[in-house]
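TEACHING EXERCISE
Course module: macromolecular assemblies
Task: Read the component lines below, then compare them to the predicted structure of the full complex.
Student: A.B.
Group: 4
Components provided:
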Amino acid sequence: MNKIINVGLVQMYSTASAGDNLTRAAQHVRLLAQRGAKIVALPELFLTPYFCQTRDKKFFDLAEPVPGPTVRVLQAIAKKNRVVLTTSLYERAGGKYYNTAVVIDADGKYLGKYRKMHIPDDPKFYYGEAYYFSPGNLGVPVFKTRYGKIATLICWDQWFPEGARLAAAKGAEIIFYPTAIGFQLKARPGINEAEHQAWQTIQQSHAIANGVFVAAVNRVGLDNHLRFWGTSFVADPYGRVLKQGSVNREEDILVACDLNLVPQMRRDWPFLAARRLKVEQ
Amino acid sequence: MNKIINVGLVQMYSTASAGDNLTRAAQHVRLLAQRGAKIVALPELFLTPYFCQTRDKKFFDLAEPVPGPTVRVLQAIAKKNRVVLTTSLYERAGGKYYNTAVVIDADGKYLGKYRKMHIPDDPKFYYGEAYYFSPGNLGVPVFKTRYGKIATLICWDQWFPEGARLAAAKGAEIIFYPTAIGFQLKARPGINEAEHQAWQTIQQSHAIANGVFVAAVNRVGLDNHLRFWGTSFVADPYGRVLKQGSVNREEDILVACDLNLVPQMRRDWPFLAARRLKVEQ
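Instructor-supplied answer key:
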């Protein structure tokens, strides 16, 4: 069976205008769909600037129900372009706030959500997310889309092998990581490069450990104290980076993923089957 | 406090003569100790050829109690050279057989053992270990040595992030992986390199995810269907490879490891502290 699926990553910047961000996102999705993309991912919280670099009560106004107004727009975009669509949004629910990934099928159907479990909170507010988000309480769901089973974990989750393991154990063929990560502007010789390389290495390792594709879609551009480092990429189940974006340009990245490699790799290297230590959801 | 510890890896081949292997291992330990090594690791099952490439009842004769005769020799070597020593041995116990790592302190004291949990068993008998070894039943212990807290997982364990996570959660500062992994002699264009790179990537990822040093010590040389690929290495808590051995030479690799980096990294990148999914022992 042909299971070669074109995955599209929208590596983009976000401005203070949600309308502008949504318009550009829609253009990128359309262009990727025209090139054959079947599953398209947008960066973490693409609708807004990365507001977690300061504490300001006003930013809670950016939160919305999920599903809600933005999901409805994304559903229309997915349906019009016949693509599966995933990203993260700022969700409010029951007086709480979450960083929430959504998955929409290629017919526009809303398939569900995942709430980011691992919330970074450094002392200097490069990624001061604990003020804005509660840790996710929905476990690690997997979504059966028209073009494959996918999971969408979010940014800091990418440093924790447990989430990827659960996603794969539940059948994910591709794990998406909508991301907003960048270099601190303060010079730290050697450290920036080490962190950037580690970010790629650990996600490659999830592909290897689980026999899945991993797709990281990051922002670019300067935003307050961070210069987002782009370099969105897709790794195959060997951990090989198939294609990678630039460090500084808004661009569409289209990657053909042969999903037949997932069962094939898991038989050659049965790490998922042979694991003897259980990760608890 | 000065916690810069010199780690020595003995990248070696093994012949059919246990006496020869033990003599060469002792020479390497002595040379490394003379150069300042404080913790020295030998490859997986260094005492014997890698017999798991065929099924033959005679190889069960190679098993011994642990602690037992070889541990006593290793204790003498450790004490004489004032180094912590770790490797794996073929253990028999209660009618069962295990691939068992031992840790001996720098005064020659036997500190304990770990039994390999993940047993590879491919259909073509490159690594046909299930005939020879039961899966380990001792969990993932951590050993407090004179020169740091260490864990010793074994070869195929290195593909499973859960073991490294448990070791780090119990306080390991360095995780050792005595290893016997190599290239199949049959030509597989592209695959050999992909597997070799993945082997390094996944171990680097354990360093990153847990803020620990990772030390992989592998065999070299041709043995039946495998050409062991050497390239023993130590990665720091950023996942950076500090030093790496050749692909084909028996050699000693000495690496200065600043164990102060362990708590430092775990504060800059608190992945170990912030994890929200539990690995069950």
